Amino acid sequence: MTPKTFKIKSFGCQMNVYDGDRMAELLSQQGLTVTEDTEAADLVVLNTCHIREKAADKAYSDVGRLRREDGSRPLVALAGCVAQAEGAEAKRRSPMIDIVVGPQAYHRLPEMVAQVARGARPVDTDMPAISKFDALPPRRQATPSSFLTIQEGCDKFCTYCVVPYTRGAEISRPWQDIVAEAHELVDGGARELVLLGQNVNAWAYDGRDFADLIRELARIDDLHRIRYTTSHPADMNEALIAAHAEVDKLMPYLHLPVQSGSNRILKAMNRSHTVESYLATLEKMRAVRPGIALSGDFIVGFPGETEQDFEDTLRLVDAVGYASAYSFKYSPRPGTPAATMEDQIPREIMDDRLQRLQARIIEQQLAFNRTKVGRDTQILIERQGRHGMQMIGRSPWLQSVHVETSAVPGDIIDVAIVGAGQNSLTGAELRRVAA
Question: Which CATH number fits domain 376-434: 2.170.270.10, 3.50.50.60, 3.20.20.370, 2.40.50.140?
Answer without folding.
Answer: 2.40.50.140
